[in-house]
Amino acid sequence: MMLRRAAVSSGIGLILVGLLVAPTAQTDMAGSTARPTVTPAAGRSADDPVNRVVAISMDGLNPRAIRVLGRSRTPNFHRMMRQGASTLNARTARELTLTLPNHTGMLTGRRIDARRGGHGVSFNTDTGTTVHRAAGRYVSSVFDVVHDHGRSTALFSTKTKFALFQRSWKPKIDRFTVDTDNARLVRKVTASLRRSPRTFTFVHLSLPDQAGHAHGFMSAAYLRAVRRSDRLLGRILSTVRSRPALRKHTLVALTADHGGSGATHADARRAANYRVPFLVWGPGVAAGRNLYGLSRGYRGPGSARTTYRGRQPIRNGDLANLVTDVLDLPRVPGSTFNRSRRLNAFR
Ligand SMILES: [Zn+2]
Fold it and tell me: 338 pLDDT exceeds 70?
């Protein structure tokens, strides 16, 4: 509505609104409230009830671990797959399979290479800089879009280097919590969901990555860490399920920054590193469906390391505009991943 009101006051605005609202959009001049009317996500009706998103990134989660452990040992990943829409064959950014670059992609919907419109975060330690300095210009995130539309945001992380994101988008992140203890962080997440749920909550968990570096990715210790992560995921899901106000309106999306095999995950040319899961669970989500089957225009990549040309695989960086889409907000400015917002999880 704010967009439309601004639009009628100037001729430039009228052109703008024509670009923003696709020809298929409902024009709802009467009775609409505070939020701008944007085309509903593919497959969803205009009265779709989702008004919150919990996004979970499991640092270093090789999707093969979910298959190897099966439903009995990872019941919550499998619950998300059975009751939600998913793929175990999504992709990281092409350039790098590292933590900060890929999380920046999830939050901004951009690739990494700044010379090609990317966010420029090619480093993996927090050096005190910002994403904007890395890119050479301001880089918008999901936090900007949600916050600028009067909604609330939170970022929970188990790694201190996520201070990069707080420093970069400080006014747009209403709550920023770092706790290197995964279980304790999840207690803070569930308490926040019960007491003061934000519109957009991003949760970063890191047990698989830690175990992978210490004992080898896909080792027995690594698989134990994935099982523990599944139990922590279960606490978040059961918090959402146990409260009707959350259950009826909350979408949970889960992906990973990279996988891993053997001692590391640094080689971006290895399938074990660039293949990640993408799971979506919540009201209206098509139960038990594969995301590639639901999302027009995407192509399942097999085992290929994909480029940015041609039909795209589902990527962890699609998360940013999945969030803006389901919340009926505009795209993240400057984003390229899921820009068409054809990533569809709904019936
Ligand atoms: Zn790592």
Answer: yes
Ligand 1 centre to CA of 8 (Å) is 50
* pLDDT tens sequence across 32-89: 334 444 444 554 544 558 999 999 999 999 999 999 999 999 999 999 999 999 999 9
pLDDT above 90 (res 207): yes
Q: 112 CA to middle of ligand 1, Å?
A: 17
> Can you state the angle between helices 207-215 and 220-242, rounded to 10 degrees?
180
pLDDT, tens digit, 9 for 90 and up, residues 219-243:
999 999 999 999 999 999 999 999 9
From the CA of 284, how far away is ligand 1's center (Å)? 34
- Quote the pLDDT of residue 41: 53
Show Cβ contacts of residue 287 under 8 Å, excluding neighbours closer than 6 positions.
Answer: 82, 83, 84, 85
CA distances from 68 to 48, 253, 260 (A): 35, 21, 14
How much distance in Å is there from the Cα of 119 to the middle of ligand 1? 20
Q: Give the tokens for residue 211.
A: 């175990």
Q: Of 3-17, 173-187, 316-330, which range is least confident?
A: 3-17
Instruction: Report CA(310)–ligand 1 centroid distance (Å).
Output: 30
DSSP letter, residue 316? G
- Give the Å distance between the CA of 34 and the centre of ligand 1: 42
Indicate whether 16 pLDDT > 70: no
Centre of ligand 1 to C-alpha 275, Å, is: 14
Ligand 1 centroid vs 260 CA: distance in angstroms? 8
DSSP code per residue over 274-308: HEEEEEEESTTB-TTEEHHHHSTTB---TT----S
Find the 60 Cα to ligand 1 centroid distance in Å: 6
Taking alpha carbons only, the member of 48, 52, 329 closest to residue 194 is 52
| Cα of 98 from ligand 1 centre, angstroms | 7
H-helix segments, 36-181: 63-73, 75-83, 99-108, 131-135, 142-148, 163-169
The amino acid present at 221, given as its one-letter code, is A
